[in-house]
Design brief:
Helix content of chain A: 25-40%
Shape of chain B: globular
Distance between the termini of chain A: 9 Å
Distance between the termini of chain B: 40 Å
Order of helices and strands of chain B: EEEHEHEHE
Radius of gyration of chain A: 22 Å
Largest sheet of chain B: 6 strands, mixed
Number of domains of chain A: 2
CATH architecture of chain B: 2-Layer Sandwich
CATH class of the largest domain in chain A: Alpha Beta
Structural class of chain B: alpha/beta
Organism (chain A): Keratinibaculum paraultunense
Order of helices and strands of chain A: EHEHEHEEHEEHEHEHEHEHH
CATH topology of the largest domain in chain A: Rossmann fold
CATH architecture of the largest domain in chain A: 3-Layer(aba) Sandwich
Number of helices of chain B: 3
Number of strands of chain B: 6
Number of strands of chain A: 11
Shape of chain A: elongated
Strand order of the largest sheet of chain B: 3-2-1-4-5-6
CATH class of chain B: Alpha Beta
Largest sheet of chain A: 9 strands, mixed
Oligomer: heterodimer
Protein name (chain B): Putative Fe-Mo cluster-binding NifX family protein
CATH topology of chain B: Nucleotidyltransferase, domain 5
Structural class of chain A: alpha/beta
CATH superfamily of chain B: Dinitrogenase iron-molybdenum cofactor biosynthesis domain
Number of helices of chain A: 10
Strand order of the largest sheet of chain A: 3-6-7-2-8-1-9-10-11
Strand content of chain B: 15-25%
InterPro entries (chain B): Di-Nase_FeMo-co_biosynth, DiNase_FeMo-co_biosyn_sf, MTH1175_dom
Pfam family, one (chain B): Nitro_FeMo-Co
GO molecular function, one term (chain A): iron-sulfur cluster binding
């Protein structure tokens, strides 16, 4: 069972919620925000192992290349170009599709490998912690996500802490999700981006529930939309300075009784409403 | 000798488009014949690698020089490795820039400008 935690907007509390829920539910925690994974700061895994992620890129045999330019014409990602006397590869634009290899009339292109990041895996007690780290400057993170999300333990609950927004990375995470928990905050920006996230999970036909973080009962930005759409709310977290302070120190919230109760309530609601 | 200018319009009175990969048009000016032709920039429609597409278009036209403003790292590498010289233009008409080029007044671009690439 894979549960994706997502939000249209960055900074709404996905990591706070998914790390605390992972501990409470004894669920595996998978940090899918490969550009900025910070769940490990809170969960502090032990026995970390690393596995590098490689992608395939073309290598051109310059001795034999006739500069016919077919590989350049066929590349839809503009990763290849024909300079005066050689073919130049812009490896960061390459999507490893292999069209250039097929197009080459004299078999002067073969695949070689390039490292774009690393998967780290560790344990905290019984639960499995994984994250993907994209190397700085790399534009394409989907291969890391795919590697991160394949072969997750099927019999257990896996919490997938998604990247912010509704980009292709988020869609990729949702492809592995059985249910989704959306996190939002009661502000105009929160509402705007929540709408996009709701559209996305509906389009992909994934059952979902909503957690309102930084909740303040005087703040009614979300009320009308939630009622109109009939969205199920699985929990609230209050807007409190103590939470921000605990977060900034890398602390886990459920160590405090008040928050442990709030998270227990959320966990129960998830089970009731979504499972 | 042919030089290409990243242009915001289709004639010599058009101002220089300060972008390279995403400029509207390229004016290809032939200095011997004092004639020019206009190409629509194919890079404008690229989802990624716009500068590469634009540079490739100019290499295929066998130009000897390019006048633009900000040429990103990929396009710079490609033009440079094809022996095409790059010159820094300002926000003035292409006509004036060609005059400046003839008078040898344009500064040669010796390093790539900032990348403008977008994310996913």
């Amino acid at each position: 069972m894979n549960i994706a935690v997502l939000s249209g907007k960055g900074g709404t509390g996905k990591t706070t919620i998914s790390t605390n829920l992972a501990l409470l539910l004894k669920a595996n925690y998978i940090d899918c925000d490969v550009e900025e994974p910070n769940g490990f700061i809170f969960l502090k895994p032990e026995y970390i192992t690393k596995q590098y992620v490689e992608v395939e890129i073309p290598e051109i045999d310059e001795e034999n290349c006739t500069l016919c330019g077919r590989c350049v014409e066929i590349c839809k990602f503009n990763a290849l170009a024909k300079a005066k006397d050689k073919i130049i590869l812009f490896d960061k634009l390459c999507h490893s599709c292999g069209a250039c290899i097929l197009a080459c009339p004299i078999d002067a292109i073969k695949f070689t490998k390039r490292t774009i990041g690393v998967i780290e895996q560790g344990k905290k007690g019984e639960i499995l912690l994984k994250r993907g780290l994209l190397n700085i400057g790399e534009p394409i993170s989907v291969p890391i996500l795919k590697e991160l999300l394949k072969d997750l333990p099927e019999e257990e609950i896996n919490l997938l802490d998604s990247p912010p927004g509704t980009s292709c990375n988020v869609v990729n995470v949702l492809n592995y999700a059985d249910i989704a928990i959306l996190v939002t905050e009661p502000t105009a920006f929160g509402l705007h981006d929540l709408k996009m996230a709701v559209e996305l999970v509906k389009r992909l036909n994934i059952p979902f529930g909503l957690i309102i973080n930084k909740y303040d009962e005087n703040n009614l930005y979300l009320k009308e939309y939630i009622e109109e759409e009939g969205i199920k709310i699985v929990g609230y977290l209050p807007y409190k300075k103590e939470i921000a302070e605990a977060y900034s120190k890398g602390k886990i919230l459920i160590e405090e009784k008040e928050y442990k109760d709030a998270f227990k309530n959320i966990a129960n609601n998830i089970k009731e409403v979504l499972l | 000798m042919k030089i290409a200018l990243s242009s915001s319009g289709k004639d010599l009175n058009s101002y220089l488009d300060l972008r390279f990969g995403r400029c509207e048009y390229f004016i290809i000016y032939d200095l011997e014949k004092e004639k020019f032709k206009v190409l629509e920039n194919k890079g404008k429609y690229s989802s990624g690698g716009a500068g590469i597409t634009s540079a490739q278009q100019l290499i295929d036209e066998s130009v000897d020089g390019v006048i633009s403003n900000n040429i990103g790292p990929n396009a710079y590498e490609l033009l440079n490795s094809s022996g095409i010289k790059m010159y820094k233009g300002k926000n003035i008409s292409c006509k004036l820039l060609i005059e400046s080029f003839k008078a040898n007044e344009l500064e040669e671009i010796k390093e790539a400008g900032p990348s403008q690439k977008g994310g996913h």
